[in-house]
Amino acid sequence: MSVEQKGGGGQHALSLFGLFLFLVAMPFFLQMGGGRWLLAEVLPGQVPHGSLAIQSLRTEPKDDEKSAAAAVWGIEDVEFQQKNAIHRNAESLKVTQEVLDKMKDFSYLKSNFYTVDARTALLEGDINVDEALSMDFSIEPTLEEPKVLIFHTHTNEAYADSDMSKGLEEGICGVGEELKRILEEDYGIGVLHHMGVYDVVDGVGQREGAYERSGPAVEEILKQYPSIEVCIDMHRDGIAEDTKLITEVDGKTCAKVMFVNGICRLNKDGQAEPVTWLENKYIKENLAFSLQMNTLAGQNYPGFMRKIYLNPYRFILHYMPRSALIEVGAQTNTKQEALNAMEPLAKVLAEVLLEDTP
Prior knowledge:
This protein has 358 residues and is of the alpha/beta class. It is 39% helix and 16% strand. The protein contains 11 helices and 13 strands. The radius of gyration is 23 Å and the shape is globular.
């Protein structure tokens, strides 16, 4: 008994000594960029891994070096010729004046259109409703070249009845293929559907770091196909097993759909701080793009859209103004429910992307 007590006292002393060393070293650790390393544990999949991680820990990059974000994503290497968003009347977006008036109230807008992750913050100046709903995201439809890119950072996401042994088409990739079919057949919008796998490493499922792996591939696709003006990263959400995200649209049971926006901002003790190494010059346009589609869906298909989800990440939304991360249902939905959701989703997309919809 006495031996155990003595051993316990020695361990206690060692623990106190270890704590002392940790407290002494912490200021130096933070000055050397350790704060970013700590945050990396909070924001998995949004900071560099491996050898690039060392480079990204520098607080201030040298003038002749790219930023940490550019080292991973290559955002300084690619210049896409995008048609600038121009203003149009909200009426052309088919938004009623009653809805528009309500949305101009920030409290109403925030509570009815957004779910804000506790790690970030939506500020009143982030969204000017008149400006957001008047941005023109229209494109010239064609089947001669791709105008829309659909990809899946989490390629292996599946539904309740998916048999993934039959192939990726059993999961979220099959849903992306259905959206491609409808956009091309019904709306004449050429789509490139990329099914590269980024959530598996060496044969083992690995979601952490998936965005670092999908980012360079998306960049290469955009270099190869400069005609692409819309980027859609399509996912399937994960929720409590006793919850099911369903609604009825035109007599069909559909999985509910949710847009996700990363606003590159952290809520630290009530203060909003930018995540400076996650660059995205299109945050305002990304927010407007999802808000337009969510607003139209709310009018045309009540209950179809969940609230737009905001968090500190960037995801793959920084390459162009017309970028969206879309969650189609969850693991509790059936594959058919997710497939059924593509008709109303395609209609909403087409209403925003086309001057005239069929």
